Amino acid sequence: MTAEVATRLLAIMTTIALGAWLMRWPIFRSREGAPGDPAFVLAQLATYVLVPALLLRTMMRLDLSQLPWQVIQAYFVPAVAYALFVYVWQRGRPVRPGDAADPAAPATMAVSAVYGNAVQLGIPMALALFGERGLALHIALVSLHGLILLTLFTLLAEADRARALGRGHPLQMARAMLVSTLTHPVVLPVVVGLAASALGVTLPAVADQVLLGLGSAVVPMCLLLIGMNLAQYGIGRHWRGAMGLTLMKLFVLPALVLGFAHVVLGLRGLPLQVVVMMAALPVGTNALIFGQRYRILQAEATAAIVVSTLAFGATAALWLWVLELAS
Known about the structure:
The protein is mainly α. 76% of the residues lie in helices and 0% in strands. It has one domain: Up-down Bundle (Na+/H+ antiporter like fold). It is built from 13 helices and no strands. It is globular.
């Protein structure tokens, strides 16, 4: 692992630790889930303001004609298939005492198993390991990361909630699910941004700067939130689940991407390295944001983010060695 990536890992863990330390201050302590709970308020700010701003600006600047579609296929085909497998597996499991019984729980669990830290850790890793050519491929994957995976997870979560709560005609249930999905704070800015990009709409300079400023706050805000949730919930009894999600994210997903990209598509060299290391990234902060959106599995997501980020130092070196053998 390069010194730059190691420094980035240390910076991430330090920011998380700062968030946990802040929760020891009296001004940051209040009843969990109450309107004055700082972690709850910051999570709402991130979910409904900062993340939508980042997604809207990213989608409006996206040029679909310039994307490396073979590289995108190499990553997202196995990632989506794996996400659906985890979702179906979680839906089929019997609910045991102490397990989350919310209809959105299977989709939320799938987020933690598939969605990686592709921005705050992935971008410096790609630049440090693969240079500007590798970074360009990584950015292409990042540009569709939220669009494809978060939209998929949102559709699944909203569909499960509609089925659990619906007592009317199937068409009414479908309409309610569609409205909930399209007005979701992740899906709506993606849809609007893509439509604006397709129509050639550009943002005024002031609006662009506003969205840029709001979007740039996503990374530090999310890292502080991880620390604050860690202080509230701890890893404690969630360490087994965190270890399971860490194994699924750091070992199973990269192995699937490597097999599909190398064996099925015949990808080699730099493109293969970029897609596998994208899959090998630890659990991303959007897993926590997704859980906070539905108020489910927040402690599990927090523990998985921390444990997988700590383990990434060793597993990244392992996958880089495997990629050398595959080249």
